[in-house]
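pipeline: protein-struct stage 2 | run 1193 | Iron complex transport system permease protein
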Amino acid sequence: MAMEKKSRARWVLPGLGVLLIFLMLAAAGVGRYMVPFDKVVSILSSVIFNVEQHWTDVEQTVVLNIRMPRIILAILIGAGLSVSGVALQALFANPLVSSHVLGVSYGAGFGAAIGILLSENHLFIQGMAIVFGMVAIALTYSISKTGKGTQLYMLVLAGVIVGALFQALISLIQYVADPEEKLPSIVYWLMGSLGGTSLKDLRLGIPLIGVGILIIFAIRWHLNVLSLPEEEARSMGVNLKLLRGLIIIATTVITAVAVSLSGIIGFVGLVIPHFARMVVGHEHRVLVPVTILMGGIYLLLIDTIARSATAAEIPLSILTAIVGAPFFAVLLRRTGGGWHD
């Protein structure tokens, strides 16, 4: 079975790449205002090449200014949350871990809720989310420190404590918020949405989330070592402290920035790594890029459904839970929560 998955990986990566490109083009034409596929290709090609215009200005605006920034951000956030999940699962040697485990998501959510309460400035809201995401990881790390250093199980427990604290603070913000003006915005934002995505969001998301993804991609060769006993890993010349630090920093940045741009989106970092393992196995050299592509495809599909299925946009966290929870339940029944192929 392991050899079969290893050979399968040779065509999975290029296949996912082609599928992602096709879905990007298809999603750019789908919505309440439909744009034919050939026109989408021509509009996007006109950015680079000299193409004779056979589309309307409205179609060009919809594709280039409204849908493409949202599509790119959906792919970026889906890829980032998914690869964060696979890195944290390797770090803690636990298949049930995701980016929520360190309390970052709820810390960033609390920051955004304060930002919405105090201001309507989008950049201020994003900045508050990132700041409190960093505060959450700092609290988690400080609580987890013991006389013997920072143990991984202490980090998990500290993350649960910090996450619960920030969840309570989010509830407090909702309780004191103006029920007519601020509360609906806070509740809707926390449920997750990419509505209103602009080029300004891409200028924030691409550098920060992109760097986090690249860090995990660069160290993917060493992620398998984390499952070995510490002495054996050190004997192989791996700096475990540096490796763990890079993973925590990269996943924290990815999660905080993703939450600042889209709200709290659950199940992506939990389900996609498992699905990728079912396809290509546990070798992180292949698993990480496959997870990145699958995560981008998954959230792109979810977001396209969210904005197209009904007249009113469906919050992303609702769809990811509806799809992710049953899938994860079936997966747990099949695998018993273990790591076996």
